Model the fold of this input.
Amino acid sequence: MIESNVWLERAGLFELLAKSFSFPAFDLAAALASGEYSQASREVCHAWGITDVRLDALLERVDDKYAGDEDTALHALRIEYTRLFIGTREPLVSPYGSYWKAIAEGRDPVLFLSRETSEVESAMHAAGVVNRPGLGEPLDHMACELEFLQYLCTVEGGAEKPSEGAAVGESVYETFLKGHVQTWTRDFADAIDGEASEILYRCAAEMLRQLKDCTLSKL
Done:
């Protein structure tokens, strides 16, 4: 049986990554400017057993780049997020699982009405998770999938109570991690490495890449 503190440590990493791949908010910029982001990253990665020399070097560069000025950090990150994940006609790096799965299978990507989006939405609704008001993103956006894993971990860790009849538990977590998130994280992270000019996104991509082979049986 997985102990509650282990589940909450996992939730911490998913929360950190979800914030990294969401449209930049002031709290992210403040955490970067204060050094809290890099400190939290090292702590949650250590808890997961993730040790990587390249990641350590990237976190040092994050500190050097964003230290002390949250307003400048926020401005730079919003420009870069828009350039990478939104674009003028299409993003340089698609943040949607349906895109990457379609490419891997040799199909033309389709948003909103894709099989992947429907499956992700069904899993979230079965777990008692409903769409946030005003959220226009398809639910197979990387940040949404990471937030869902965070939720499943906090439930298993006893920090959050699910609605009655919700489909949660270790098997739901493992199925979603392996069947959805891990299927496209490597391609997504590699694409970020090839396009990102802001070090935060290259750092977050490296942390995300480390999740590729993380399952309950290995942690």
In short: The longest helix spans residues 170-195.
